[in-house]
């Protein structure tokens, strides 16, 4: 029944005419005459009208971000076809575009801030969960590119790209905006936010722009074990300063510094029934909360995530084109506390139960984890002026140092104090000595060298072809320091290992404009994630290989009825080989290690659409979504999967209906109201990857309804909004073990939230 309804919705879209570039922000960019505004995007590293770009892209403008209260990845997914997020904590989010997810440690979607790549290129630790979740205050727009973007943006962008475009300083006038809000979560905390931006001209040719924001994160989960309420609250602080200098008519310089801190007192996990004792058999009530929004933990999952990006851009007009130099330095550090006491060492046996006898008393086990990234990029790029033949090319260099530091410490359950060394001695190199639980520190250094070029040939006014290529060489060196203890007895310092990886990426596209305001395009492109070294412990492998994707897509984008109808439809097939995965192996010292490996092939195919209709002045109706079929093509024993199995956390159907209405209320006063209905279809949890405590489980679909209404009188505005109006318990991540007393855990969406926003421009 549900599938038939979904098919009917899709056929309704197709029957509406054919597609055009529907973006959620499109309604905000159409003026009262009905003409499409010139939405400019930089997907191809040059400014183009979105309606003319021959690839799948969604651009959500700054106005739309503010109106819909889109503040993070999870909010953004509802407005981008084919984009979903597996959310674990406020800072741990796995980005998934077009179904490319195996649950591996590495990222398959790149994140870029003003052309600065800022993501881990390595797959050590949990780097795939640590994408820069940039605050959306004072952004020009967010561009989401679907499908491989490796030709222009390099490694990791094999699934797609999230591009944050910040507002440039304006030398022409002083301006600013301030905003304050208050909001509360059902049965949870009341919090608030404050934001301000000031643009100051510095003479006639320069300006400085400063944006700052504070956002309180409301808690809504209780920890009865420690008698804590709303213990998952936190805060986000973001600062961005940008200096622009138009030195001459032909030279422009810009320096931007971005800093953000995201702190959380606990994760958003909730204990549910799960299947910890029988992980291969999931009961029908597995997703039911044990006691509402509660999670019993001895050690709340405190976290602190902060990053800083310093970027300098110089542009030189050369007459025939533009030379651009882009230099950047970025640093990210995340500290995280986990409680592994109640997670299972084996079905029905927790780590606490397994280790407590060694101390002769009940103990809890605290996990301290730090992950850090330090990255330097230098790019030189030259691009031709617009013409019949347009080309660009460049060189790219990057150094990256990462550290994954994970250690485990015992605590007495009776008094919560450190338990110290175990009374059971450990044999180390023939010497018996007291032991702790242990841990490891795993640094990786990487250097990347790349050269790239692409060319677009305009064959008359209605046809164009384009081709691009990039060569990337990545050198990585890894060392590991094992902290001796019950987990790691020998060797103490495994030898370092180095890997050199070379890859080519390419893209080919063709675009035909049969009539004005309509394009039909096709694109073939590939992408990759580089392989890398592993710490060498016999009989482990010493490296893992790169994985590759090849994307085939066709699309049509159109605007008709004087811009009152805009639509887009895209179909694609992606072949994925040598999939990078999390894998486990048993070393000669008897310890099971978790690392990165390769396994099998997969294919993702689907449809993406966006439709926007303006039936009358002020009214906009948008319908966007995706159907995704992402499955393993071959058996993948190391992944715990078989041919035909669905890839994890990829909904079969996902779609959003937006209805917005604006109405004049006076000479300088406008009112507006909007509603968004979002459906996220059934998905599967992660593969088992050799673990006896997990299983590939189908997750239930869920729907959310968001509403907002406001008024803008001159420079002043007020808005009220409700998110998750029906208080849906939507599951964004699931584990059938890990909860207290042999239960499981889920990460739910935030319960119903009501807020008030006041703003002023000056």
Describe this structure in words.
This protein has a single domain (2-761), classed as TonB-dependent receptor, beta-barrel domain (Maltoporin, Chain A, Beta Barrel). It is mainly beta and 762 residues long. β18 and β19 (349-350) form a beta hairpin. The protein is built from 5 helices and 45 strands. The longest helix has 14 residues, at 2-15. The strands form 10 sheets. The chain has a 22-stranded antiparallel beta barrel. The chain has a 5-stranded mixed sheet with strand order 3-8-9-6-7. Residues 1-37 have low confidence and may be disordered.
Q: Would you give the CATH topology?
A: Maltoporin, Chain A
| Distance from first to last alpha carbon | 53 Å
- State the helical fraction: under 10%
**Helix vs. strand class:** mainly beta
Tally the beta strands: 45
Largest sheet: 22 strands, antiparallel, barrel
Shape: globular
Radius of gyration: 26 Å
- What's the number of structural domains? 1
CATH superfamily: TonB-dependent receptor, beta-barrel domain
Q: How much of the sequence is in beta strands?
A: over 45%
CATH class: Mainly Beta
Give average pLDDT, whole number: 89
CATH architecture title:
Beta Barrel
């Amino acid at each position: 029944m549900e599938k038939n309804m979904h098919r009917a919705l899709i056929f309704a879209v197709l029957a509406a005419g054919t597609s055009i570039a529907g973006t959620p922000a499109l309604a905000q960019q159409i003026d009262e005459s009905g003409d499409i505004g010139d939405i400019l995007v930089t997907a191809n590293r040059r400014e183009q009208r979105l309606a003319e770009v021959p690839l799948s892209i969604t651009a959500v403008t700054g106005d739309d971000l503010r109106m819909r209260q889109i503040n993070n990845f999870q909010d953004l997914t509802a407005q981008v076809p084919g984009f979903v997020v597996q959310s674990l904590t406020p800072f741990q989010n796995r980005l998934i575009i077009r179904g490319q997810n195996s649950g591996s440690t590495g990222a398959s979607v790149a994140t870029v801030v003003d052309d600065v790549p800022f993501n881990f290129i390595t797959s050590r630790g949990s780097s795939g969960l640590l994408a820069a979740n940039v605050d959306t205050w004072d952004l020009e727009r967010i561009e989401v590119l679907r499908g491989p973007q490796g030709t222009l943006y390099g490694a990791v962008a094999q699934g797609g790209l999230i591009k944050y475009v910040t507002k440039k300083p304006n030398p022409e006038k002083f301006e600013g905006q301030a905003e304050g809000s208050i909001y509360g979560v059902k049965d949870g905390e009341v919090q608030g936010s404050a934001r301000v931006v000031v643009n100051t001209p510095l003479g006639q040719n320069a300006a400085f722009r400063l944006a700052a924001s504070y956002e309180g994160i409301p808690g809504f989960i209780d920890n009865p074990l420690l008698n804590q309420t709303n213990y998952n609250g936190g805060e986000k602080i973001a600062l961005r300063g940008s200096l622009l200098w138009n030195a001459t008519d032909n030279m422009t310089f810009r320096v931007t510094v971005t800093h953000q801190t995201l702190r959380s007192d606990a994760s958003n996990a909730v204990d549910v029934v799960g299947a910890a004792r029988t992980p291969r058999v999931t009961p029908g009530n597995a997703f039911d909360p044990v006691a509402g929004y509660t999670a019993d933990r001895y050690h709340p999952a405190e976290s602190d995530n902060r990053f800083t990006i310093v970027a300098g851009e110089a542009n030189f007009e050369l007459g025939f084109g533009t030379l651009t130099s882009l230099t950047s330095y970025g640093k990210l550090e995340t500290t995280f506390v986990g409680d592994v006491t109640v997670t299972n060492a084996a079905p029905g046996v927790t780590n606490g139960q397994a280790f407590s006898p060694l101390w002769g008393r009940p103990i809890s086990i605290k996990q301290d984890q730090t992950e850090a990234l330090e990255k330097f990029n230098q790019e030189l790029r030259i691009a031709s002026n617009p013409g019949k033949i347009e080309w660009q090319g460049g060189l790219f260099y990057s150094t990256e140092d990462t550290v994954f530091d994970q250690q485990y410490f015992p605590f007495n359950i009776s008094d919560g104090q450190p338990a110290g060394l175990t009374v059971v001695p450990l044999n180390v190199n023939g010497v018996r000595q007291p032991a702790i639980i242990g841990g490891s520190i795993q640094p990786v250094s990487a250097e990347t060298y790349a050269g790239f070029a692409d060319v677009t040939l305009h064959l008359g006014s209605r046809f164009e072809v384009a081709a691009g290529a990039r060569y990337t060489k990545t050198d990585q060196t890894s060392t590991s320091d094992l902290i001796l203890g019950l987990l790691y007895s020998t060797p103490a310092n495994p030898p370092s290992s180095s890997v050199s990886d070379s890859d080519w990426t390419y893209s080919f596209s063709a675009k035909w404009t049969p009539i004005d305001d309509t394009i039909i395009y096709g694109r073939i492109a590939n992408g990759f994630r580089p392989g890398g070294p592993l710490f060498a412990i016999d009989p482990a492998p010493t490296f893992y290989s790169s994985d590759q994707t090849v994307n085939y897509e066709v699309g049509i984008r159109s605007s008709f009825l004087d811009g009152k109808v805009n639509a887009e439809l895209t179909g694609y097939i992606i072949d994925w080989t040598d999939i990078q995965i999390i894998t486990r192996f048993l070393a000669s010292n008897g310890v099971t290690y978790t690392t990165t490996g390769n396994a099998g092939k997969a294919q993702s195919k689907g449809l993406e659409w966006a439709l926007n209709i303006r039936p009358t002045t002020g009214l906009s109706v948008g319908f966007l979504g995706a159907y995704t079929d992402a499955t393993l093509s071959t058996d993948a024993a190391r992944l715990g999967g078989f041919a035909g199995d669905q890839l994890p956390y990829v909904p079969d159907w996902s779609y959003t209906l937006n209805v917005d209405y604006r109405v004049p209320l006076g000479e300088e006063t406008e009112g507006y109201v909007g509603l968004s209905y979002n459906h996220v279809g059934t998905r599967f949890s992660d593969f088992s990857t050799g673990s006896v405590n997990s299983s590939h489980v189908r997750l239930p679909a869920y729907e959310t309804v968001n509403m907002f209404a406001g008024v803008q009188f001159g420079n002043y505005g007020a808005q009220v909004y409700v998110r998750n109006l029906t208080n849906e318990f939507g599951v964004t991540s699931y584990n059938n073990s890990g909860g207290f007393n042999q239960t499981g855990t889920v990460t739910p969406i935030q319960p119903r939230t009501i807020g008030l926003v006041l703003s002023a421009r000056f």
